[in-house]
Amino acid sequence: MLVVGLLLGATAVAADKPVLGVAEFRNQTSAGWWRGGVGWELSGMLSNELAGTEKFRVVERSKLENVLVEQDLGASGRVRPGTAAKIGQLTGAQYLVLGTVSAYEEKTQGTGGGISFGGISIGGRSDDAYIAVDLRVVNASTGELDFTRTVEARSGGYGLNLGLFKGGFGGNLGQYENTPAGKAIRAVLMEISEYLACVMVDKGSCVAEYKEKEQKRRDKTKS
Q: Global pTM?
C-alpha cells in the first residue's frame, strides 16, 4: 500500500506540472548562423532546457510539428470550418511557447592586450555577440497570450559562465557551440527557461525581480 501511495503521489506531482509545446523558432535578423532547420533546433534545445528544470512536462517535437502542420492547413482555408486542428486537443499541451529572434549583433575588435612572442601575436581580440528573443506563451485553451517578454543575452570571447546547459548543440548550430554566437544562444535559452519557471511555477518574489529587470531593459532601450 505504501508503494502504491508513493506512485500515486508522484503521478499527482507530475500532473500538476504545466504542459508546454515549443514551436519552431522564427527569425527576423540577418544572423549568419540562421539557416534551414535552425528554427526547430532551437525549439528542441529550449524543450530540453525546460524539461531539465523538472518543473514542466514538454510535448515531443514530432507530435507538435504534425499539429502545427495541420493548423497551417486549417488556416489556409482548405479545411471545412470547425474541423481545423487545435493544439490543446491534439497534443494535450496547455501552453504553446513561441520564440522569434528579433535582434542579433556580433562584433570583433582589437583590445590592445595581445602578447607577442617570437613574432607571433596571441590574444588582443574581443568577440562579442548579442541576441534578443521575443517570447510569447499562448494558452492553448483560450488562445490568449498569457506571458510575453523580450529576453536578451550577451556573450564575450573572454568567456561566460552559463552554469549547466541541458540543450546541447547539433545540426546546423553544432559548429557554433564554442563561439560567441553559441554562448549567446545558450544564455538566452537558459534565461527563457528560468523566466518561465518563475512566472508559471515558482512565482513569489522572483516575479518582482523579472519585472524590475524588464523595466530596466525598457528604460535602456528608450535611452
A: 0.75
Residue with cell 596571441: 122
Over the stretch 83-127, which tens digit does the pLDDT of each residue have? 665 655 556 889 999 999 999 998 866 545 444 444 444 454 557
* Cβ atoms 207, 197 nearer than 8 A: no
Q: What angle do CA 205, 208, 211 make, to 5 degrees?
A: 155
